[in-house]
Every structure is written in structure tokens, then in C-alpha cells.
Amino acid sequence: MNYSVQLLGISNAIVDVLAHVEDELIEKLGAVPGSMTLIDLERAREIYALMGPATEMSGGSVANTVAGFANLGGSAAYIGRVKADQLGRIFNHDMRSLGVDIRLQAGDDGLPTARSHVMITADGQRTMQTYLGACTELGVADITPDTVATPKAVLIEGYVWDLPEGPELTLKAIDIAKQNGTTVALSLSDSFCVERHRDSFEHAIRNGVDIVVADEDEVGALLQTESYDDMLESLNDYDNLFAITRSEKGSVIVHGDEHIVQQATPVEEVVDTTGAGDAYTAGFLYGWVNDQSLPECAKMGTICGATVIQQLGARIEPGLLDDYRG
Amino acid sequence: MNYSVQLLGISNAIVDVLAHVEDELIEKLGAVPGSMTLIDLERAREIYALMGPATEMSGGSVANTVAGFANLGGSAAYIGRVKADQLGRIFNHDMRSLGVDIRLQAGDDGLPTARSHVMITADGQRTMQTYLGACTELGVADITPDTVATPKAVLIEGYVWDLPEGPELTLKAIDIAKQNGTTVALSLSDSFCVERHRDSFEHAIRNGVDIVVADEDEVGALLQTESYDDMLESLNDYDNLFAITRSEKGSVIVHGDEHIVQQATPVEEVVDTTGAGDAYTAGFLYGWVNDQSLPECAKMGTICGATVIQQLGARIEPGLLDDYRG
After folding, report:
1. What's the rounded Cα separation, in Å, for the pair A76 and A95?
2. What is the DSSP secondary-structure string of A146-194?
3. What does the pLDDT read at residue B120?
4. What is the value of ipTM here, to two decimals?
5. Cβ atoms of residues B273 and B309 within 8 Å
6. Number of Cβ pairs closer than 8 Å across A and B?
7. Angstrom distance (rounded) from CA B118 to CA A200
8. CB neighbours of B224 closer than 8 A, spacing ≥ 6?
9. Is B49's Cβ below 8 Å from some Cβ in A?
10. Nearest chain A CA: its distance from B50 CA (Å)
């Protein structure tokens, strides 16, 4: 098989607007500390006005994974919607500068590029209020044999199911992937997202998804299990490969009754846990598309995750695995 | 005297676009490592395309000082030109969120908001290529008794002399300030800027400027002296107060034959020296407008400078001097 690229990401294209804030602001906004809430443009503008000096950088969960994957040396493509405004140009610039092939043109009309207001309190916790804007315009028509092409793997974000045409477009993407022998990976995004779409996720996982990447909470939400042991037992019933991160407990790859346990890499200081899961996924999939063994994939994911939590910002720097010899 | 605010800044309003780059890119651009070059919009777009993933944050030398001054708890206002585009909104947001009174409306037409492409190489050196855009539209008509009002001090940036109407508008600002008993401070910006405008600077310093803030190189360029001792001797001939930073050698305040020497604060690790001078100026002027003694002003400047070099980014966090008791 001749693959067009190693990895195609389909997800929400978001620019993060980060600022340090007082606890009182979170309270004033009525936000749950540490949570992610979707907001409209008017609310986005209100919040921005209340936030202190901010820093803008490209973000989005699977977009971070794709950027990290490209930085590791993988060939990647991306499907997500931005407008041709300054934030959209920033997002596309950051992707293209890593060699990522942007499959959709930035829109001249329509809603503004998505932004996530990331409010960091003194305890390091991040509360996010996200305006999805242009992301919501991602539609079935954007998913074609041309835009998807023939990647070795496609990674779809659970959050895409929140979009108006999300359920249909993901099914179409999975369908095209299956016709081309493309591995289909699904990121479960967050446990609330899993709660919102459990039945759809379950259906997709049983019909086309090969790999599920998630943290322990998200898998628990999917399977409605409480304990790690119950989770493992329930996963016995799936044909899929589950790559599950467990924070300081490391990660586990589950394939039926096969369990590959990977300890966490000891780190000197945790600076910022944002993007740890996305970075793990980048490393794991980089191993996967390069035909590494599952224990190797797990190690590569763990190295990437451990590195990202020791820096500010969610994206992996170039060449992280250059010196890695499994 | 009833002052409208404690400090008014007049300067170039710039958003920094920061990225880590390979040494080869600096070479390819024909740029002198560590230098600042002015570029046009076409070149700005070319450079942006060549840069890796970037982070956007408000910058500009005196704008950083004004933001830092506001963060220390001072009341501040600002005159500088941005367009009402996304970068302009980012810049004004960051200022306003600190309580800085923005005196000019963002332009609906005209050139785009200025951006400085800050390319950081592995050795931590920063090479800057700056498109001034909307800044160049700052004109004499923007400087009026209404926009200047009656601040306790006004701080003007040497770079303003590079603008088409720069020499005239600064003279007008100094004139208005003098009528209101406002202290006039001039930042020499950088030694190349001093080379470009030595005669104009000399004239302004002899006619209206009360305080000159600069580093040792810039003062050397102004006075055409080589050694520290020669510099001090030449300064004997000026009535102005010179607040001069000397990197790891600390700072010195010179007023005629009076020299107030302030040692540098020992720091554990220098992360990023960008903005150290701007932060020193913020602390120094914060002491000055609060009628502190010159040794106190020097100490406050030094604390601010030392803090900024231990963080990434040029702007001071809120409340830095809250615990300081002179």
C-alpha cells in the first residue's frame, strides 16, 4: 500500500488564549475550576475583556497530537475548519511550518476561528471556556476521498461528535478509511464528551475504529466501570486496541486479554500537565505507523508525555525521539 | 498639581511573534544574530512563513514598561497606533486589562498592526525582524492636550524618532508636558537607534527631557565614549538624570557629579534577558512617581529587572513590589 501520509488528524482547530487569573474570576464566571465549557461569541468577548494580558498559541487536542507527531518526524495531514482571519492564519501557519498538509482552505466567510480562553489560577489549574466558531462549520462535504486521501492512520477527536454534522462526517471518514486500509484511531477527548456520545462512540468502536486512545476516566465513562480491574475485564469484550494513560501510574495498552503495562517516566518537576495525553498519543502513533512493537509504542508515548509535562505549553518540540533507541 | 495619571507612555505598539528557530534560518535571512531589523509587510509574511510554530504576545519596549508599571500598581496611560485587526485587539486588550488608559482609537483603515518576529536560537539569542505598520501612522495630530493630558511623567521611546512624523510629534509631546509640569523621560531604545538620531536626541535631552533611561551601550553611543569612566565624566556636563543599566554590573544613576551605584540582584538562573531594561524602567519610574529617593528608585528598578530575566517573556507579573519595603 502506498500511503499519502502517515497520519491524518480530524478535529477542532483552536487557538488558545492563555492568561493568569485570580480565583475570583473563575467564580464570577460561574465556571467549574478545571472544566471546559463551550461558549458563544458574545460570551467569548466578555470573558476576553475580563481576562488579564494573554498569550496566543495554537491548540486543540488532536491538533496538538498532529503537530507533535510532525515534530517527531512523521508525515501528517490535517482536516479542521478555520476562517481566514488572524487567528486562523496563526493556526494554519503553525501547522504548515511543521510540514503538516492542511487539507481544507481557510474560509473567507462564516464564523471566526475558534479560540479557547485558558484561565490559569495560582494553583496551576486550567479552566477553559471555548468558542468553537468556524469549527462548527466542518461538514460532511469536507470529508471526501480527496481530502482524506490514503493515510496510514487517521485520528479523529471525540469532540468532533459535538459538531452539527459531526456524527455523519466521522462515519464518512471511517468509511473512506476502511476502503483504503487506513487504521482508524479515536481519541475520547474528555469524560463529559464520552457521557454525551456514549452510544455513538460505542457504535463507532464496534464498527470501524481500530485504536482507542484515552485516559482512564474516559474509558471508565465509556464502559461505565468504576475500578481499574472492572475496566480491564470489560475491555476483554472488545477487539480494539486501547491505549490508556493513567497519569503518574503510567499507561496500559489493552488488546483483549493482553495487557502491556508501561511505568511513568520519573520527572523532576511537573510544570504543566496540559497536553500530556495528546503528546502520549503522538508518540504512541509515531511508533505505530513506524511498525514498532506495542511495548515500543507505549515507551515512545510515555517519553513524549513526560516531556510535555515538564514544559509550559502542550506541543512537543522538534526531534524529541531523535536520540531514542528502543 | 492634579495629575491625570502617574505615567503616560508614547511608543510603538507591537505584538511579538516568538518562535524557536535553527541558526540556519538567521543565516538564510541575512540577519545579524541578536539584532533588530525593520522590514516591510511582504518580508514580514515571508519570514512568518519560514518560522516554526509561534506564540503571540504583546510587546514593544516602552509598552512593556507601561504594562509593568501598571502591574506594579501605578496608574498609566498609553499613546501608540494599532489597527482594529486581531493583533491590534490583542495589544489593546492586554493594555486595558491592566487598567492602562488607551488614548488613541484603533484605526479601521490604514496599515496592519505592527509585529516583531522574534526568532530564538538554541543559544537563547533573539534576532528580531519588525514590521512597524500602523505604528508609522502615529502623527503630530495624535499628540494633543487631550491625549497627553497631565501625567506626572511621560516616557517617550527613542524608536519613535524613526517614524515619519516622529521628531515633530515628540517635540510637541515634550512641549505639552513642560506646560503641565510633567516630568519627561526618554528611553534611548537601542544603540543603533541612538546612532541614527544622535543630534535629535542630544537636542531633546538639552531641551526638555528630565530623565534619560538607557543601558551603558546606548549612553556610550550618545556621548561617543568608550569607557565607563569617560561616560561618567561626559555626563558631568548634563543637568539631566541618567538611569543607566549595566547588566550583571547592576545600574548607576548619574546626576551631574552625583553617582548612585546599585549592585545587580544575584539570580539563580537567567532564563531570558528580554525586557530586563524595560522592567528596570518600570520599577525605577514607579519609585520616581511615588516620590521615593533615588537609591530606592534604583532598588525597585533592579528588583523588576532581576525578576524578568528569570522568566520567559518581557512583561512583569502583577504585584511584584507588593512585599517590597525599602
Report:
1. 10
2. HHH---SEEEEEGGGGGSTTHHHHHHHHHHHHHHTT-EEEEE---HHHH
3. 86
4. 0.77
5. yes
6. 70
7. 45
8. none
9. yes
10. 7
User: What is the C-alpha separation between B41 and B272, in angstroms, rounded?
Assistant: 28
Grid coordinates belonging to B149: 493630558
Distance CA(A187)–CA(A189), nearest Å, equals: 5
Fold (CATH) for A7-11+60-110+137-308: UDP-N-acetylmuramoyl-L-alanine:D-glutamate ligase (3.40.1190)
Cα–Cα distance measured from residue A30 to residue B281, given in angstroms and rounded to the nearest whole number: 38
B46 has a chain A CB within 8 A of its CB: no
Of residues A221 and A34, which shows the higher confidence score?
A221
pLDDT score at A279: 93
Listed in sequence order, the residues at least 6 apart from A1 whose beta carbon sits closer than 8 Å to its beta carbon are A150, A180, A181
Residue A82 cell numbers, joined: 478555520
Q: What CA–CA distance (Å, rounded) separates A154 from A11?
A: 11
User: What integer pLDDT is reported at residue A206 of this predicted model?
Assistant: 97
The whole-number average pLDDT for the span A117-138 is 92
Contacts of A229 (CB under 8 A, 6+ apart): none
Q: Return the pLDDT at B300.
A: 93
pLDDT at B126: 86
Considering only CB atoms, B97 lies closest to which of A52, A93, A94, namely A52
Whose cell is 545587580? That residue is B264
pLDDT at residue B272 is higher than 70: no
* Residues in A touching B44 (Cβ below 8 Å): none
**Order of strands across the sheet that contains A76-79:** A101-102, A76-79, A7-10, A153-157, A183-187, A211-215, A241-245, A251-255, A258-262
Q: Indicate the range of A203-212, A311-320, B113-122 predicted with least confidence.
A: A311-320
Helices A216-223 + A228-235 axis angle, to 10: 60
Instruction: pLDDT band for A325, please (50, 70, 90 cuts).
Output: low
User: Top-level CATH class of B7-12+59-109+134-308?
Assistant: alpha beta
Average pLDDT over residues B276-302: 94
Half-sphere exposure of A285 (CA within 13 A, CB side): 41
A57-110: pLDDT as tens digits: 999 999 999 999 999 999 999 999 999 999 999 999 999 999 999 999 999 999
Q: How many residues does chain B have?
A: 326
Asked if B93 and A318 come within 8 Å (Cβ–Cβ), the reply is: no
Q: Could you read off the pLDDT of A154-192 as tens digits, one per residue?
A: 999 999 999 999 999 999 999 999 999 999 999 999 898
For residue A91, the SS3 value is helix
